[in-house]
């Protein structure tokens, strides 16, 4: 019987060997993957086991941490003025994961980032608890407040940039939400979270309209069309008459006419006058004359059709489509399939204001270790040059005319040079839905060009004509610009 | 029985008893769990747990008493099995106590487990004292068969727990897992039965395609056992027990007959049976599905299977340290019983888990060595049967929890919480020690032969 016994011994040895190989596979080969699996609750337990680092605006933290005793998490996230800052910070919730800066910089905020290795090692030896680092943003607290308060109860978004660096100064979206309400994991938190979801709240308070929502840009896009005309040499003098009939029949159509809003002097108007009164006929024809290819190329220089604009929170892709001639003419006045995020239109204003140089927009200036060492510092980067400096000058003078004596007079600031453009974008089939009111602008002081703004307001049901942008959106833009200029002094 | 003469480990010279080796190992088997216990306390509360002294004395006493008993009643027994069993039991108590510190896992179970362990050790001592020779068990071959059948069938009449009917519930007294005891009793029956029938099974066969095909009538018993194990699977929805008994029978049949054909038949029958049952038994289908998709979410929630995998993965190479893991995330009672290895894997890491698995491997190989050394066929068969059952159980449980094979509802011997299991396994080790004592005991010196005297040349 000993021969089979020896074989049974080998068989039993193989069983144990199989177990050993399996545990090596699970605990060594698959270990990291299992350890960091999003459904592995240990990840969240770790994240909330120490006070999280903070997101800083103008030297003050807009986030905080508080201890909790519900469940297995020790700390919970808190937010100051959560509704105002939510489009910047995003949320970090024990039960519902996190997003935006809270998610993208989680390793720094939690303290597990590789760049914090040194401070972690010191903590290990001194017996201190692991600490999280801070995220220092570029935002301007006063500008943000002006933007958020200006939007008030209406639905919309504001983006303000520093044209010289690309730093984001204001990023507001309304209606907003307070991330504190669902930072924990209680039933109350779950109710608050569910109430904010799109299916329960058609206003989508959790949608970051400033970065993630695209709108037809309407007449504000005429800046891009004017830029294309100058850059491609279609017109060189903004005060020279253009060849523009009123009404203008769209190319390749049998009598589909493009008209203007109201009785404005558009026939063969110069580009300056056309922009001043927002002539659809003039810019529609410019777009048609240049053709889809050139229009698209210019729009792309301003940042359209780029799905990789990371602030670091990724902005939705703004679209200038490849289209047929009549559609391309409509796209030239910001209609048809043309779509832009508020950030995109702020970038347009910013590029013009910065002498034709578009800076990459960003909102994280520094990542700071718990011991206050800077682990990452942002340096402003040039993204593209949509305009030659002399052409940028020309567009600026046109935009300044709009504010001085055109549709954008509501944005005037005494003692400051302001350039802007209004817009009212139709949407819905046959223009049946309420239009979007737009305003983009920049302000110049003796010291430079500190701010460019884009404002969009959805569903302004009282005003359907082109005045809407100037009436509703321009005052908000003015408020934001004033706040930035006041902060400069 | 040619093998008797080839067993060379036995001689008339006195083999070293190795009792002092056993004593030295037992010291470690007590000290390691004590250190682990203190470690848990320090990690959880920052202080040495209040029960540390009591636990040390208790475990030391258990080890000391068993050692003295073995020294007196089984002096030539294998020196490794007792320390390994003691160490596994001690570590099991520490892990259960460690999980008792998690309020979310319900009431404390370590005190009861200590009580059951003491009862198990008492049974172990009783066996060594009163079972002077394992061959006595041979007398109870057919009684064993009836007892085993009763033990296996009884749970059908009691309510199932967590989808498997493997419990006998006595109101007011608690519950019993008869399968654990049945495993020993059935090994006794198989050993006795096969010892008698093995020649018939081995020799009366036809040769076909290089395999010895058994006669139809000899195929009877294997078919009966096969049917029985399938019935356990169907009526008690207990994959583990079913696999264990069938595997045990095939292994013992192979050892008894030395015919590879029995293994082939065994594998074919078990594979066929498993596939057939899996076809209509939803419980088994769920287990297989969970095995193939361990991390799948069910109704948006993380399953126990996934939680166990996360435990293992998060432990990594060296583990989080005792008391510092989160295996409590595996909800319910299972973390202390079926899933106890997940806690081991998470808190002492790959290193610790491999250590525990190697301890099981060592115990198994010492068991088979006992079978090799045994001088009588019944002892050989019984030893290999008990060891085989133990090995299969370890493989089925550990393989199930780590995702090597589908999960079955069985407990890790000695380590996991469960009274029946710990008592039965102490009894199992007791019988193995008795067999090994008999095997390693030096043969009595031959009496001076009177015939020899007659033929001596007497020189004047």
Automatic annotation (TrEMBL), chain A:
InterPro entries: Beta-lactam/transpept (IPR050515), Beta-lactam/transpept-like (IPR012338), PBPA_dimer (IPR054120), PCN-bd_Tpept (IPR001460). Residues 52-135 form the Penicillin binding protein A dimerisation domain. Signal peptide: none annotated. Coiled coil: none annotated. It holds the Pfam family PBP_dimer_2. It comes from the Bacteria. Residues 156-482 form the Penicillin-binding protein transpeptidase domain. This is Penicillin-binding protein.
Automatic annotation (TrEMBL), chain B:
The keyword Membrane applies. The chain crosses the membrane at residues 23-40, 52-70, 82-99, 114-131, 140-161, 181-196, 217-235, 241-257, 262-280, 339-360, 381-408, 414-433. Keywords: Cell cycle, Cell division, Cell shape, Membrane, Transmembrane, Transmembrane helix. Signal peptide: none annotated. One of its GO terms (biological process) is cell division. Residues 440-460 are annotated as: Disordered. It is a multi-pass membrane protein. InterPro entries: FtsW/RodA. It is found in: Membrane. The keyword Membrane applies. This is Cell division protein FtsW. It comes from Streptomyces albospinus.
